[in-house]
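Retro notes (design track)

What went well: tokenization of the new backbones is finally stable.
What didn't: we kept losing track of which sequence belonged to which structure.
Fix going forward: every design gets posted as structure first, then sequence, in one message. First example under the new rule, 191 residues:
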């Protein structure tokens, strides 16, 4: 990564962190993009260049790319749902290790803010598409695409339930354990 790319990434991260902090303190609807820009030490135009909408300030992450890369690196053993579940567990571990409190605060905002709830579903659809694309990896098999889409959708539903529970328990319970419990309840076997 070049110096310029690294600086852009750091600016983007600083903007998002300040936005999440302000949204948590003042409320999502009560906080303006101009306030976020001021807190991050940038112009409002810089905020919009990095986050085209206010919702993106909360919803943006690179989990789609991480998950797609991870599923291609893991052994292709077990069912598609098992492969996706292992990928999600690895992604959860990475996200929690990176910044558990930030993830928890973002999640609470997504759950509690009506303006973010529908957009959160859009981000889940993008993650589903990332899984399908990675699993297909050039295959034109329509049956494989259908199976991958069904497995990804089911696993994302399991993840959603685990994330809701994790947020309601203030992050006290292990997110991977909650996911494993929900997966077992849904699929009838452990991952």
């Amino acid at each position: 990564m070049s110096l310029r790319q690294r600086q852009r990434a750091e600016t983007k991260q600083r903007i998002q962190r300040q936005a999440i902090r302000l949204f948590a303190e003042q409320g999502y609807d009560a906080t303006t993009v101009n306030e976020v820009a001021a807190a991050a030490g940038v112009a409002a135009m810089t905020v919009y260049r990095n986050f085209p909408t206010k919702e993106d300030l909360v919803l943006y992450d690179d989990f789609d790319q991480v998950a797609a890369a991870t599923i291609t690196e893991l052994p292709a053993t077990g069912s598609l749902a098992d492969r996706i579940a292992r990928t999600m567990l690895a992604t959860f571990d990475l996200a929690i290790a990176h910044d558990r409190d930030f993830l928890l605060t973002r999640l609470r905002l997504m759950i509690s803010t009506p303006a973010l709830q529908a957009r959160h579903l859009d981000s889940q659809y993008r993650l589903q598409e990332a899984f399908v694309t990675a699993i297909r990896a050039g295959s034109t098999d329509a049956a494989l695409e259908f199976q991958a889409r069904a497995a990804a959708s089911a696993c994302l539903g399991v993840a959603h339930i685990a994330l809701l529970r994790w947020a309601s328990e203030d992050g006290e319970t292990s997110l991977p354990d909650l996911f494993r419990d929900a997966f077992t309840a849904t699929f009838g076997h452990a991952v």
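Added context from the reviewer: The chain is about 80% helix and 0% strand.
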